[in-house]
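User: We ran a pulldown and think these components assemble together. Before we commit to crystallization trials, I'd like a predicted model of the whole complex to look at. Sequences follow.
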Amino acid sequence: MYLEMPFAKPFDRNLMMALNVLLSPKSNTGKRLRCIIEPMHLKLRVEYHETLADLIGTLKQIGNRWGIAVIQVADRDELDALVGVREWLKDLRIILVLPDHRRDTISKGHLLYPRFVALADGELNHVGEVLEKMIPLKRSPP
Amino acid sequence: MTTQTIKTDIANILIIDDDEGFCYMMNHLVEHLGHKAISVYSLKDGLKQAATHPYDLVFLDVNLPDGNGLDALQEIRTAPSLPEVIIITAKGASDGAEIAIQNGAWDYIQKPSTLKEISLPLLRALQYREEKQDSVQPTALKMEGIIGESPVMKERMNRVVQAARSEANVLITGETGTGKELFARAVHENSPRAKNSFIVVDCGAMPENLVESMLFGHEKGAFTGASASQPGLLLQAHGGTLFLDEVGELAMNLQKAFLRAIQERRFRPIGSKEEIESDFRLIAATNRDLDDMVEKGGFRNDLLFRLRAFTFDLPPLRQRREDIWELVMFHMGRICKQTGSGIKGISPDFFEALSDYQWPGNVRELLQSLEMALAVAGDAQTLFPYHLPNRIRINVSQQLIKKKEATSQLHQGPASGRTLPSLRDYRRQLIADGEKQYLEDLMSITDGHMEQACGISGLGRARIYGLLKQYGISRPLKTPQPG
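Assistant: Here's a predicted model for the assembly, 625 residues in total across the polymer chains.
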């Protein structure tokens, strides 16, 4: 887990504006997502995670469970694992990037109640557009 | 979840009317129908009866010697037994009927009525109540995350059961943070569709150019960037539930297409020649006043009509303060368990501060504040007001000072050389103070974001600007985010 743009005040209201990102940095999809999310660094406190365990580790810390998450699902096994830990994800507004468009993959993805679903081989720029729309929404309530 | 109503074939009926002749006739009618009736002749006695005895049905007069029955309607409806209420008055007026029905009265009858005219709604109300009681299956309910024992929450949970058993479209309204999505999920989870998908469509977060293809799907090559065909959310919701969050944000040009889709459960993906069918159940939610939007041309009346076959209006937290303790204890237990930290004690003044605050962001704001307090408290064993976010502490302190000032002013009688203002002036001042405080809170939680402020308050921009000017409140300056 590595932190981008740390803030000076640990309990600043921006704590509520965290963006947790789970992606595979070496995959093409991960690289594309990273490029799309980087402009958000000025607006959100962004934390990148390479494994699901890293993401859950961050969410386990008090004060970190609210905010937005972009989750790139590497494969169906990881999707199963995510569904298994969905209790941790329930307070997040999730943007989900699924590995394929099989019906059962999409159905399982919806068990996480994502606000937006994109496909790894689809138009990922939409992820950035949705994030842009979500940011002002997350400012209320504080 | 249970109510205090004792299910019995013999119903208990309360008649609140100062017309003794009418009460006598009603008692006779009720007993003739095999039920029990009690008559009281004032609002005060009626409220006392409703609060202390499990009535199934209340006949409530409007013009009582000590007040207007309509003003007490909510209090009677939310009495422990959650009785049905039939308004009965000698002076029927359409606006009174509208107020009564909007506030949940079962019926509105004008005196003098024949026994037949009265007995029919009486029997219908009792039949409805019996079916409602039968429909409550406490052990089978899935109400994940919905916490509260207040009468108003119990009533909403009963409605979840009713909605879950029906296939009607549902519209959930309520301020931001009141739990609209939790209620939508509860309806889905308790319905026969529970084994299929619950699909969320966040109309507020979806860029306008994307909504149509997300909802209806598209064929490969239908537009630039459509490199593969994609099923829409309507199709993904086949057999399950489609939850349209922030439905007030749906653009007008899409409302027409969506209206047709929910009328016929058929639609055409973009670029497709064929229509496809989808058997989805629709639940929509909004924090906006859709009636007002219809009036202003921002929302289609026919779509609104379709959406609200079944409605929930979720109460703001400030209207169910008795649930705060349970909410705090439940979520503190959850957070502490998940984070592996021990449960903390709560000082009385911490809880008092939570109870005094207005919670414009409702349950969501309460939970975020609780989590902030737990984070700030660190290893401390007990939560004190000091651990709460500053804006809450400041607000509560200001409220307390104002309350003390008002109390001391009231207690200063003519003996201290001070005269009381007229009730009209006093009331006007209280309203002004309340409005000012509300606007300050509104600007604080929205960072002066006018669109959100309009959404939360239900006021138009011009009205908000006018009030800000009137009370000398400035919008917060938007400063760049650090980093």
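Chain B touches chain A through 53 residues (CB under 8 Å). That may be worth checking against your pulldown data before setting up trials.

User: Thanks, that helps.
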